[in-house]
Amino acid sequence: MLSAIGQLTPPSPSKSDLYKALEVAKNRAQRQFKPQLITIAFDIPTVDPLSIFSQIKHQEIASFYWEKSDRKYATMAMDSAIKLTLTGPHRFQKVRNWIQHNSNTLIHTRPNDPLAQPHFFCGFPFLDHPSESTVFLPRWQINTSKNPSPGDHPRTVAILNCTVAPNDSLDQQWQQYQAQLNQLQAWGSADLHRNISLAPFQSWDNDQLGDGQAFVDSVRQAIADIQNGHLRKIVLSHSLDLPLSAPTNPATLLHNLRQRYPHCYTFAISTGTGQTFLGASPECLAYVNRNGDQRYLHTEALAGSAPRGTTPAADKILGSRLLNSKKDRHEHHLVTEFILERLQQLGIKIDILPPPQLRKLANIQHLHLPLATPLPPHLSPLDAVAALHPTPAVAGLPQTEAIARISQYESGDRGFYAGPIGWVDGQGQGEFAVGIRSALVTGDQAKLRAGAGIVVGSDPLKELAEVRLKLQALLAALV
């Protein structure tokens, strides 16, 4: 969709790697009498993918941004070469099969380059209906690694995914894609930091965050359900509709989030419908990486919350209280127990567990237990996602009953909130964050959501204070 990245004037470079790759795809298309999907990777000067992301007309095309600042890796995607949307049960399995089929038929010009791997970017809502799950292989993807191996250098790779049909004009395609690549590099050379300054942290008072009475009432009902034995835990969310001063570029918000929360996943997904779902999630649902022939699954139990202290001494006291809180340790234990049971259903057993530690973020701290284990060869990252979502950290226990009561207590569909957001590649790797600490941005409006886990011993007013503390993390980026 050229109009989405501007009207470009094709240059006249020598017909080299790009043209030759298109020729390979066309020759195969003619032999097999059907269009062929090809991935073509280019090393380009190091750029900030967010600079390119800031130029996209998100209301017109699918786009995706993903960054883990402390890992020195970022990727962005724009437009779709192929796309799948679906609702209903078995969505993770259907997406897994769709990705596997297209990966197996894809022509890849640099299959052994880890940074040149095309990603299938995924957004799964909290529930399998009524919101649509979306997965797409982008037309263009920019990968940047700033954490090279010893003796290596930071790199940026641009990846083009396109379809070549038997009767396509290669000259026309070559000029079109070369022009787009030149435009992307020009966008990437712009200094994003010069145009975006980090606003000082502004703490909002309770009046600005709404009275929260509906949330408090739902917590009271949930506590009664727990006391009556209907539930062991339920996670309820509180939403806030926030008018923005003007239509806001999602890149501005993402820049603020990655600066404030470098240990979180900074993410954004737009399906081309005028809305962008973005946030800074502290929670990894599933991360699968490859080390030689072996793949490893990483996940974590994250539950229980406390504010950060204004001094080191105060922060230590608050952290110690969290570590020794009977209510928070119980909440964390329920999440850990669930994860271990679901992994065992996949044939994965973890026997020895250390006690949870503190995960300290800018304005909040959590009980945290990272888990890592080899992943059997026959399993996909999406098999792990299907087994783990939704964890008790965002839904509750028993799961079916908790989900039913969430729909009863909360107003409106959660959409992508608390759903798995991430990517899968053709080498069996992938990474998914839980879509929390997030906002749905539409022009000059933003809907924020934050949740709290309700268990035995929960206090409605303290739970309201917790969700307000979590909302502050997003409000700091939006103002």
Overview of the molecule:
The chain is α+β, with helices and mostly antiparallel strands. It folds into two domains: 2-190, no CATH class; 211-478, Anthranilate synthase, CATH 3.60.120.10. It is built from twelve helices and 19 strands. It has helices at residues 17-32, 49-53, 91-105, 170-188, 192-195, 213-227, 250-260, 312-323, 326-345, 381-388, 399-409, 460-478, and strands at residues 36-44, 62-68, 73-86, 107-108, 119-123, 133-145, 155-164, 233-243, 265-271, 276-281, 284-291, 294-307, 357-360, 364-374, 396-397, 420-425, 430-434, 438-442, 445-454. The chain has a 19-stranded mixed sheet that branches. A hairpin with a 3-residue loop joins strand 13 and strand 14. The two termini are 32 Å apart. The model is unreliable at 1-14 (pLDDT under 50).
Q: What order do the helices and strands come in, and which of them pair?
A:
Elements: H1 17-32, E1 36-44, H2 49-53, E2 62-68, E3 73-86, H3 91-105, E4 107-108, E5 119-123, E6 133-145, E7 155-164, H4 170-188, H5 192-195, H6 213-227, E8 233-243, H7 250-260, E9 265-271, E10 276-281, E11 284-291, E12 294-307, H8 312-323, H9 326-345, E13 357-360, E14 364-374, H10 381-388, E15 396-397, H11 399-409, E16 420-425, E17 430-434, E18 438-442, E19 445-454, H12 460-478
Parallel strand pairs: 1-4
Antiparallel strand pairs: 1-7, 2-3, 2-9, 3-6, 5-6, 5-16, 6-7, 8-15, 8-19, 9-10, 10-18, 11-12, 11-17, 12-14, 13-14, 16-17, 18-19
Helix pairs in contact: 1-4, 3-10, 6-12, 7-12
In short:
The protein has helices at 17-32, 49-53, 91-105, 170-188, 192-195, 213-227, 250-260, 312-323, 326-345, 381-388, 399-409, 460-478; strands spanning 36-44, 62-68, 73-86, 107-108, 119-123, 133-145, 155-164, 233-243, 265-271, 276-281, 284-291, 294-307, 357-360, 364-374, 396-397, 420-425, 430-434, 438-442, 445-454. The chain is an alpha+beta fold and 479 residues long.
